[in-house]
# Entry
Amino acid sequence: MCRWLAYSGAPVLLDELLYKPTHSLIDQSRHARLGVETTNGDGFGVGWYTGSEVPGIFHGIGPAWGDRNLQNLSAHISSPLFFAHIRASTGTAVQETNCHPFRYGRWLWMHNGSIAQFHRVKRDLMLAVDPDLFPAIEGSTDSELMFFLALTFGLREDPPAAVARMAGLVEATAQRYGIDDALQMTVATTDGVRVWSFRYSTERRSRSLFYSQDVRALRDLYPDNPLVRLASDEARLIVSEPLGDLQDAWIEVPESTYGIIQEGDDVMRRFEPIPPT
Amino acid sequence: MCRWLAYSGAPVLLDELLYKPTHSLIDQSRHARLGVETTNGDGFGVGWYTGSEVPGIFHGIGPAWGDRNLQNLSAHISSPLFFAHIRASTGTAVQETNCHPFRYGRWLWMHNGSIAQFHRVKRDLMLAVDPDLFPAIEGSTDSELMFFLALTFGLREDPPAAVARMAGLVEATAQRYGIDDALQMTVATTDGVRVWSFRYSTERRSRSLFYSQDVRALRDLYPDNPLVRLASDEARLIVSEPLGDLQDAWIEVPESTYGIIQEGDDVMRRFEPIPPT
Amino acid sequence: MCRWLAYSGAPVLLDELLYKPTHSLIDQSRHARLGVETTNGDGFGVGWYTGSEVPGIFHGIGPAWGDRNLQNLSAHISSPLFFAHIRASTGTAVQETNCHPFRYGRWLWMHNGSIAQFHRVKRDLMLAVDPDLFPAIEGSTDSELMFFLALTFGLREDPPAAVARMAGLVEATAQRYGIDDALQMTVATTDGVRVWSFRYSTERRSRSLFYSQDVRALRDLYPDNPLVRLASDEARLIVSEPLGDLQDAWIEVPESTYGIIQEGDDVMRRFEPIPPT
Amino acid sequence: MCRWLAYSGAPVLLDELLYKPTHSLIDQSRHARLGVETTNGDGFGVGWYTGSEVPGIFHGIGPAWGDRNLQNLSAHISSPLFFAHIRASTGTAVQETNCHPFRYGRWLWMHNGSIAQFHRVKRDLMLAVDPDLFPAIEGSTDSELMFFLALTFGLREDPPAAVARMAGLVEATAQRYGIDDALQMTVATTDGVRVWSFRYSTERRSRSLFYSQDVRALRDLYPDNPLVRLASDEARLIVSEPLGDLQDAWIEVPESTYGIIQEGDDVMRRFEPIPPT
# Structure
């Protein structure tokens, strides 16, 4: 199990969201509440957009809670769109190339969950990756492979369809090997402009996922809360588990759903895997 | 808070005691039960004696639970006397020079606890270290400084007296600064032949410490238990919290007590700090 | 031996100076030319100023040449004033708390050189550190101790005098122990506005140090050079050894000299240690 | 470029061979002489056999020259057969799963060299790996993939034939992509009893490889040399470049040759890739 956070809104210093809230993501690296595993100490990562084309990324292999570089960088990097992830390995090695968010060109990807019995299906899934993309795979996780499958299936053109085809392939492959409950995922991906997030599992009991309530509504409820006061009108957070201490600030993403955070109205739709033809 | 384990007995592979028992020390790195902090993920260390004069040590800065080198080494290093320690930093940096056990010549030292408001008394305590020993201090922890104070006060000649004088100096110094509850410690130290362990705190509410029941007695109670079967007659373990699942296998070290594991009869005596004169 | 670089001028992405020049600082981590040791692979660091009060720092314990985080961060962090350092340890541990630049409040400090027989004089020098500053020492290097001595002697008020008193104390202490050639240093320090650099050694054979020629002069000589074109009029670099391939771009700092980079005219003056009274 | 060392003979402490000789392997991590790259600072590893079935391995991602754990372990681990390797990455990530020696069951494998334009042929080569072995690939290097191809082709039954088929497949694959000079390798592999070493490159200009002269002959020549005195009669070393300072101690392995170190007479034969049928 892992925990992650995606932010979009007016530029903020990363530490405003990673460190300062009660039950912050960094706290969750030591004491998560909603999950199989309370400790997420097997590495971490942040990815952020500034002016340049390609997002910055910073990965560490120690626990996030004690990483001084992360703390320093978070206090000096400001961004209007960033991802943060803390990892609990399900068996693959603790190394930077296995840390989320993964990056390809302008795109970032992060994941909480797993492909069941990954070692049995890994080879078949790797063969499905576009040969031109194949050399860019650097780590050994199911999460990164899911990213490259989604890229293969057109993530850069139509993210919901690409992720649906990826999920469909994983399920079909697992079925061929007689593996139940093939896929468990909450995923976020972005091109630096829009953020797509997905909550899905084959058994329809997916890991938790929440998005933040409209800031204007929160201002009425909590005029004095520092986080709320800080936030811009269009600020949006998507998180594995709620930060802060505001009861009404978080809305659970329904089972088998994806959402898009974008200029104009956000969108939330039903997610359904597309089996390979 | 940290957790530690000291073993003396017939030579065993380290992993027999570090990995194989239920609720092993490695498990405790993620989920300790008896302590302020359940996660001990800020580095680890083992120290062991083989034929050579100076004990071997291996330190790592990541969590013990995921360290493949520790796992590999533990499966290939066999020793009749070894220390193992998992660290939860109380603020000082996560780096190898802050990992226990600390070594000086033939001696090893490891500690669970802390000196209250260490930053305020650190300078005074450092000045009390023998100038000839001073350059050998490599890290920044209270634990290592306690070791060097004990060495200054004659650890190599009379360990209980040296540790008592160290504790007395820490308490006297804290008192001068108006600091309450100066010292909290469970300590183990060894010269490769005998093992001394100490349970003490200024407020007389010391961290937990246990030693293993006589193996012969355990054999009657649990003839089929693999750990008990494996153990030699003279095998002794001292641990921050019990391993395994045997109710009668562990005896709590009383408050303000030290023990000696040695050839012939083991010893347990009252521990009392010796104030500086 | 280490290598370092200090930049002041219009904001630039760090990688413009750390990676892109021929014989860049990152190249020097593997193949330095002017020094006792050609490999500087024992950690690295950057410190940079943005809007916030305290500069950002990023330290790594591996070689700079292979560090992907450094490469990523350098391509996304832009600053008008930054320090970069690559380390070749002279014996002390390779750990983040021993990486330059060191930071205290608004101040940064980095060093190339050493205190002769540091282990013999370390204790005396540590005693000379202001007790209020003492707890902020985190590592074990001579370089960091020199910083805290300079802070003790008024670095924040009068840097040249404070560094002169630090050097004087080191030399006086060494003399007391019968140690020759006490100090070897090229040092840079900054408060985020001005940059002071020092070249000095007791034996008057100091490590190399260079500052960049006036950019306007260089433009006449090398109108097509990308580094020169990029540079703002007031851009200044101070480096352990020249970057790039322009013969006329660098001026050697004379022996026993310090310089100040500041708004208005830069300054270069004779440096002489001030012995303790 | 990397450097490696394989030892077989009477049990010795690892540090006798890794640290004590002049121009030792650890020295070569900073200053190799015979190679494209003089610095081998991108991780290291040792693998050794003791009583247990599976060899021990220890991998580190920093430079070998500064690693205190390696130094400590080398002074406490004694073995009759061990491999040691220092790495200079040719582009793949610096992480433990990319460190040599690689292990599979009882087998160890280490490599100096590279597959030309590896990113272009990697996918095809991975598809050739036995699907049952595929999940055990953990890193991203050409070296590890060569190991798994050799395992696929029967390394455990007939090492020279398996390595020849691996080399043949690499060359045939490269040819299909129009890549010249496909393979450059010096490889050592062992099952804990015998050691096979290979020197080969498609262009027939292979990286250097040497084996040690018969110890009895050396004793006549250098009766006082400590390394020679220490060595047992059957001691054999295979190294990327000579250790120590004895002119007559080393014999170059000829181009396109493999050797076997074993009980009874050692063997040296011509090596020729076997193209896929």
About this structure: The first helix of chain D runs from residue 14 to 18. The longest strand of chain D covers residues 3-13. The interface with chain A takes residues 92-93, 95-97, 119-120, 122-123, 126-127, 131, 134-135, 137-140 of chain D (CB under 8 Å). Residues 100 and 262 of chain D are 22 Å apart (CA to CA).
